Amino acid sequence: MTIDLALRALANASRLQILEWLKHPTKHFPRQVDGDLVQDGVCSVFIARKLRVSQPTASEHLRILSQAGLIRGKRIKKWTFYQRNQIGIRKIKHLITNKI
Amino acid sequence: MDIITRLEATRDQTLKCFALNDDQLARSYGPGKWPVRFILHHLADGETVLYDRIRRVISEPKQVLWAFDQTAWAKGLDYAQAPLNLACRIYEAVRAGVIYQARVHYKKSGHLEFVHSETGIRTLKEEFDKVAWHNEQHLEQIRIALT
What is the pLDDT of residues B43-84, one digit of tens each? Predict the structure, then answer.
């Protein structure tokens, strides 16, 4: 995890929106057949649909957020579910506070 | 695992998939999802697009580079009928080019930036990582389709 990677991940309205939605997944996403919205995270298909982008574009946003340590993915059957990585987010906040 | 190892490992696994029989190529990893044949065509086309981006970033950084609509390509380029052996040769040759550029530029020029039309500012290093990641994701789909 680097501050550079995190800042570039955050410098995009769609990715900020995803992070915000994942704060309260039950408020923003429908119930899922596989995977609990809170325990397991939100299926990437639902994130793509809500963001109104193609699946590959959503996957790319989610990959960038994952690499930056802001979210984490969990594989269940054929799907990947995403939730906020609270420890990673705290570390990044700390890095930013120290840096500027 | 370093980038060269990932690129070589995914290449070797993908090339084996081009030799699957028609029944295996027709299998899909889920309802409404692409069959293996389509995934392999997409990997060949995706490789050419990513290689083009990589060369542009190395030679003329800070450009806007455009996303491509994979569904439109599958339809427009008729993945159901297009010859798979041609896609295989394209994939193998272009991956060799990607590996060569990764050996030369991954560390030395990885910081070079471009603007992706949908996901914003990206670096050359991230684009090399994406080639490996993209291939790994589709290999996983193929694995699911075949089990």
Answer: 999 999 999 999 999 999 999 999 999 999 999 999 999 999
Rounded CA-CA distance B4/A95 in Å is 31
Secondary structure element (H or E) that encloses residue B18, with its range:
none
Give A33-66 pLDDT, tens digit per residue: 888 999 999 999 999 999 999 888 999 999 999 9
Closest alpha carbon within chain B to A53: B118
Report yes or no: A11 at the B interface, CB cutoff 8 Å. yes
Helix (H, G, I), strand (E, B) or coil at B113: strand
Q: Is A2 on the interface with B (CB under 8 A)?
A: no
pLDDT of residue A77: 81
Q: What is the mean pLDDT of residues B24-44?
A: 96
Beta strand A42-43 with A79-84 is antiparallel
A43 touches chain B (CB under 8 A): no
Distance CA B44, CA B79 (A): 11
List of chain A residues whose C-beta atoms are within 8 Å of the C-beta of residue B116: 60
State the smallest CA–CA distance between residue A28 and chain B in angstroms.
22
Please list every residue in chain A whose beta carbon sits closer than 8 Å to the beta carbon of residue B129.
67
Question: Which contiguous run of DSSP H or E holds residue A72?
Answer: strand A71-76
Whether the predicted pLDDT of A96 surpasses 80 = yes
